[in-house]
Amino acid sequence: MDIVYQGMAGILKWLFDLSSMIGLPYWGMAIIIFTIIIKIVLYPLTWKQMQSMRKMTDLQPKMKVLQKKYANDKQKLNQKIMELYNEEKVNPYSGCLPILVQLPILWIFYRTLANFPYGNDASVWFLGFNITQAYGFQLSYHLILPILAGVTSFLMTKVSMATSPTKSQPGAKKDTAEATAEQTQKMMLYVMPFFMAYIVITLPSGLGFYLITMNIVSILQTVYINKKLSAEKKGASVD
After folding, report:
1. 10 Å Cβ neighbour count for 8?
2. Which DSSP symbol is given to 111?
3. 29 backbone φψ class: left, alpha, beta (φ>0; ψ -120 to 50)
4. Quick check: pTM over 0.85?
5. What pLDDT digit, counting tens, does each position of 162-212 carry?
6. Element spanning 125, H or E
7. Contact 43/221 with Cβ under 8 angstroms?
8. Measuring CA to CA, which residue among 29, 216, 5 is closest to residue 110?
9. Which end of the chain has fewer surrounding CB within 10 Å, N or C?
10. Which of 237, 157, 238 is nearest to 195 (CA)?
């Protein structure tokens, strides 16, 4: 794995040199640029994820018909659901792809930050934070980083729920599975921000900048893709 960490360190060093050329010689700036590049590279996967989620949402009425029709035959129900997925060209597991790709990147990035030869002391300071330092629970200006991580995580989950397959119409009667899924989503909406804030408090602040930038770019991408998918659906219904 050393070669992977060295490769990541080489990319960060190149981005640091690049940011220095434009008058911003900070490793924090290199981390933000790196994060934006990662999100751009992963955009096709994010698009497929949200497209799949939107299709799953649109399939809910047909799914309910099948669930009602084969309520007493689980095997037949599963078979019909798979046939429906094939007919509509929907992969219910494609939504996991961006997460599966981002987790190892996050781990490699963490290990790289923890062992990185940053060079001169001035360059490791960014917006009042030493990116190699974990600030813990001390009551100071530095708490703003975990607070931002929590707020952006909340907004990210809130925006993502807009395209969730389990989202039902207001006032619509929900079955047990829908009610359970919505309850789980609501719990994630409020639990994840605290979890992300805890991570940022306990790890070097450079990772905090990575997570906050990741959330902000994800929110912007989600809003953009939502609008694009809605426009495509509206255009298809007009045709």
Report:
1. 18
2. H
3. alpha
4. no
5. 766 555 555 555 555 566 667 777 778 888 899 999 989 998 888 899 999
6. strand 125-126
7. yes
8. 5
9. C
10. 157
